[in-house]
Design a protein that fits this description.
Chain A is built from 12 helices and 10 strands. The first copy, chain A, is α/β, with parallel strands linked by helices. Chain A is globular and about 60 Å long. Chain A starts with a strand and ends with a helix.
Chain lengths: 325, 325, 325, 325
């Protein structure tokens, strides 16, 4: 069974583009306490905003106090308005340099606290309108920046989280294919994919196939964000409330390809209690992982070899409702 | 438990716009035998193409021989190329009159064999390009035709199957709302909705909510087509291979609103054996209906009253994995 | 040529679920000045948040000073967190009553300032998860509330703005069909549709067809919001930067059906200057309306009668590039 | 101005999964005559089905008679039912070997007639259901087959046409990113992308950005299919009837990156006359290319450098309606 982490802010409160405060905000200490109260969690992932970078000692104290590990540190390239038109891909040298500097400071802190992974989610690196970007120049700037960060500290794995869109209407790092393509060209070993289940679904990717592709092209799957959605938008819902069977296939392929990192809960419970919504996802992850463990290697190999929808259907029904027929 | 029917052709073979023959075709007699071999089926639904209209005696003989009932008869307003630009909505009086005449002949045959429902799927009634239709005139022609058919024989229920698109890029009867709206204006009692689960999903409708709306606006849910898809297209897959939880909610609302018609399996098993694919769907319908029967009225009323994603999530997990926690 | 209004906040700054401040906020006075500086605008539409309700005198002063008219007043049923799980459809009597009271206060202010339209955008009236709502009860509550508001002041038109989703994953007032259906049942004359071009596109509606449907079913088109998007999400972009030909058909049908209200610019220019982005939309509306005026009634009647994609294509090309061939 | 080709069958008639014959079929000779009657066409592209492979002499005679060039030859890996579960990716050695043999015969014929490009559209290489494929094994088989074909004749460029889905619910060669990734690993120079404008739109790709990516990663854009759609499905409509501005950006990037191959019209005019629909697309390509030529390098460089939606919007309006303001 894979272990769970959570983005710390997820146990707190949310806002969206209409409503600035669905619920009251929590202090850092409260957030840690709320996370720690969920016994199924092993770790937290931290978005290192400017504010968080100024509380490094407090963070270390809270980690020690709660006994929580750190799944990864994320560089803030999306909430800081300076990056609203791009971070590593920015054609404004000053902005781009600051994003590199910010990332390096996060890498340093990761090393300091023994966290092996730093995550980049280039949510603002893209474009909204056509006739608004030199696609080649900006993609190249991003790739060059990524290379520089990988070389900065070879002990830290830099993972990149792709997403088709939002907050930009189009992201540069949009699909598993385009992300692995950039990594293939850079060719460094400490570069990996942070696969967000919901982002895969949003891009009409089968999550299990995305896992397989990461394996094939450099064994680059290093981090996983987990949540659920209705496929057409990154709804960031409680895990398992929409998809069921696809999760079972996903967990099977994670095992088959040897993934052993965290499953990081990453959701936006606008109208739910954040702590309870995270706890729910952890419960779902338990039952879904257990159900996936019913998959017998010999049996599934036989099913996959058939390449027949009827055989697949029968197998899925057995996995889910085995005892009912 | 609701009973199952199947579109007779579903146990046969398919074609698409690229490949004319994924498998060899079957004779009418073979199709009936294949359907009859699936013990969980109670009935067949028949698309009354020109060819079928010429085999009425053979059809009656096969029904008698196999003991299968008839769920509904569908008027062929989509495979006959004369209707390629519309049937009841056609601005070509000759075409429109023929569609009315064709439908009346099907209504007559329905009465003759004791089938209470005639289905219209106005798949060709719509448009592909903008600047290609007078939306008001054509919608009105469709509504007028529908009224005429309802009045033609008040003992037969005319059900209309809506769908967002395909084969036209845009259909007039596109969503549950626009379909009920037209019916509300016509105001006749023997007019009903044929709800296709996959069409609801394609239109970003929650199937259970579509059921509720049919109840609210005239109690018009009279027939159900069933299959599965990935939401963005009418993939017409084996039931239950994509959606799980949404089916449970759907069956709950069918029960709550008193639906007691057929669940008509309606799929396109291009690369699977048609008979086996239908049999699979019947198996899924059994387990999904059984799982939905675990829903306790008191308990769900309490859950729905909470209007809280966490409570809903917990309830869904219990429904599906009750024994595992 | 139709006149333009703008949601006052549009000339200001935006936030989204990741970044709280893409640009510095503006005062009410500054917003009015910025709007007034765009000469092509005739009016503003105002979202009557709690804060705005407390500045009624200031609003009246600004209107007088700038000479701007008011297109409509919108009730705040989406930014106030009390309505996060629904306003008129809320099963919490206290919340629902407050939403009615809030709406009535806005209606009173509309009458006071001579604004003929009050808009409801029930963005929070819907659900995120399945198994989380009693669809019939909540839809009925909404309809009852709407009726009460229409009866409260028969001189004010209540317009309802439908949208497939967001901020909820599913809205009750989702499509033009379901909205007109509810209105058909309520049957009051001072009830109308506020059609948002982008919401129509998001729901795979052809905007021109939505206009035609509003005409057919009660002549209910009373207000229009305008913006652009990539069809899969309500991107709220500058008008005309994505769609071109569909706007021409839209303006043609607006004229044909006798719409004479405002075109209210409603966009989210996260990374652009709000004032300039609104000014851009006004410029596009001018050129698109002028291009649509090239449509000759005799000629288009002939084209539509053909129901032929080739004829439609030729006509569209002529409209757009007439002088180039 | 780029030259136009057309898939020969496009000037004929179509069928879909409901209707086998929207119009009467044409003979090979008639198809060539119809294509030749469209003066704006320079070439035809030919799908080398079994039937066509048996008419090589007739094809050569028709080419000579009409003076049409050949844009590319496409291997039939999608209409022949033997490939219904995959061609080069097939786990059935017999099927896979036949697909390689078929492709080599097409390569031989291409060399014989002096056609520089052979196209593979792996439409059946993918899967419909989850739990139905070993993604790694099948993707590897496809890549190995592709490599074998490239090495078979280094004078012929093998282009691969990607598409998100259809006829399978999921294709292996799904996006520009995953296609370039496979090519990057294979690393052979006579391997290229056949970019279908509609497939890019279907996958939420900006076509111009896909062109840019092909340039960056191996300069692999070697062939272009052209048509239009509503983004959510491969509607294969007449060029320019949906998208306008995106075509202008697309043509600009084609010029900027030095593309000098054909624009191959590839559409499914179910209800239109095929010849006339192709002729329409050629007319649109003329006006759209001319409009794109208005783009001044200095001016656009300045606009792109701004990275500002307002500047982009203004520029697009100028391109389209320059003379109207």
């Amino acid at each position: 069974m894979l272990k769970y982490s959570v983005f710390l802010g997820n146990v707190g409160s949310c806002f969206d583009r209409y409503c600035t405060e669905y619920a009251k905000p929590f202090s850092l200490c409260e957030l840690f306490e709320r996370a720690a109260s969920i016994k199924k969690l092993d770790a937290v992932d931290l978005v290192m905003t400017w504010d968080m970078m100024n509380q490094k000692d407090e963070i270390k104290a809270q980690l020690k106090k709660t006994g929580l590990n750190v799944g990864s540190l994320a560089v803030d390239t999306f909430a800081n308005p300076i990056y609203q038109k791009g971070s590593l891909s920015s054609t404004d040298a000053k902005v781009r340099n600051q994003s590199l500097a910010d990332a390096k400071r996060v890498i340093d802190f990761a090393e300091e606290i023994g966290c092996p992974i730093v995550t980049l989610w280039p949510g603002q690196d893209g474009y909204d309108y056509i006739f608004a970007a030199d696609y080649i120049k900006e993609r190249q700037l991003f790739a060059d920046g990524l290379k520089e960060l990988c070389k900065y500290n070879e002990n830290i794995i830099i993972t990149v989280e792709y997403k088709l869109k939002e907050p930009r209407t189009h992201s540069y790092l949009s699909t598993v294919g385009s992300t692995l393509l950039m990594m293939e060209k850079i060719g460094l070993p400490n570069l990996g994919v942070a696969l967000d289940y919901g982002h895969a679904a949003l891009g009409y990717e089968t999550a299990a196939e995305a896992v397989a592709m990461c394996k094939m092209y450099g064994d680059r799957l290093k981090h996983i964000h987990i949540n659920d959605n209705y496929r057409l938008w990154d709804d960031d819902m409680i895990v398992g409330t929409v998809h069921t069977l696809e999760y079972l296939e996903f967990f099977y392929w994670l095992k088959k390809t040897g993934y052993n990192g965290y499953l990081v809960i990453d959701q936006f419970p606008y109208r739910e209690d954040g702590r309870d919504a995270v706890s729910e996802s952890a419960e779902w992850l338990d039952v879904l992982q257990k159900a996936a463990e019913r998959i017998n290697e010999e049996e599934i190999t036989e099913v996959l070899a058939k390449r027949d929808g009827v055989a697949s259907s029968r197998y899925m029904r057995k996995l889910l409702f085995g005892g009912m027929e």
